[in-house]
Amino acid sequence: MNIEIPDRLIKMVPPGSNQIEYLLTATEVGLRAMSQANLTADTTVVSDTFEKIATELMDQLTGPRSEIRKLVEDLFGKTDSPFHEAMDPSNPNSKVAKLLDLMDGRNKDTLDDFLEKLGEHEKAVQKNLNEMKEKIGIDLAVAQVEKVGTKKGFDFEKEVTEELQYWQKYSDSFENVGHQAEGSSKRKVGDVIATMDTGDSIVIEVKAGKNYSNTGDDSLDRQMDEAMAYRGALGSIAVTTLEAMDSKKWQHSMFLDRGKNRIIVAVDREKSDFTMLKVAYMLLRERIVSQQAGTDGHGNGVSTEQILERVKSIEQSLSSIKKLRQIMSDIEGRFGGLRTEITNMNRNISTAVTELYELLGSNSAA
Q1: Same domain assignment for residues 145 and 64
Q2: Ordered strands of the 235-241 beta sheet
Q3: Which of 57, 71, 281, 357 is the most buried (most CB within 10 A)?
Q4: How far apart are CA 324 and CA 129, in angstroms?
Q5: Which residue segment(s) compose the domain that 37 sits in?
Q6: What is the C-alpha radius of gyration for the chain, rounded to an integer number of angstroms?
Q7: For residue 299, which of 311, 310, 287 has the smallest C-alpha distance?
Q8: How far is 329 from 270, CA to CA, in rounded Å?
Q9: What is the value of pTM for the model shown?
Q10: CA 274, CA 297: separation in Å to the nearest integer?
């Protein structure tokens, strides 16, 4: 007879099975079960049939000859399988190789673009810094640079003497006497003697180190007094360095007028900037000339007070220059650190890509 099987029953037939034989077997099992549906019914036939069906299903799904196992073995085992072709990094047409190439390209493009922008920004900052240097008068002339370069090995006293001789605003003479030990104690008294055209002199104490103080036996005031007395000078200048000044809690300025024709100045020896020494010498010289002439400093139309006002302005500007130099050094240091960090990042990216190639290559070989 002809029987119409509903779709819902056909869908219960395992894929790959012979639908007719499967449906006939299922019908037989069901009919036998229904005919024996009582308390003493023999379920042997049903049990055997279900066991047979289960065995067939196991063979098709998980058995050694199952379709799923064969499909998995072909997919992962054969070198020409779609999986291997897609995952092989050595195959330029594989998905993985294309992905790695894309990543390399994007990383390189991004890094190159960043470095380019960083370089442009650094050039702009450097240009601004150079303009600042020019505006505040820090640019060094070639002649000055060459002159400074020849003095690297000289001691501080010789540097001071050469700076004053090189600058020479007046017809004065400058003599380095720091190497001469005076008196029975063989102690040095004064390092540089400046002799004016009037015959009067100014003695200069040069302190290359930090072994001086504000009071006591090592005070600069006392050393200047002793040098003036021994040399017969009318004034004295003590020259220290910015490095030494920074370590002194009392020397808070590059220019200190200590009275009685005594001045303490700090110079930037590292940059060969002796500006404060030069302005101190001009101020002290004009003051001595006025005193010797018996005037109040207006004999030549310029008072020492007017000079002192300019000196204070110069001292303030030099203090600002010092701070700006520190800021510029900090900026340059930060750029150097940023370059190092970028180099490390680029190295890490290359290492990670290499490790990924090796990892995928080992999996492919396995």
Answers
A1: no
A2: 173-176, 192-195, 201-206, 235-241, 262-267, 255-259
A3: 281
A4: 9
A5: 7-77
A6: 48
A7: 287
A8: 14
A9: 0.45
A10: 25
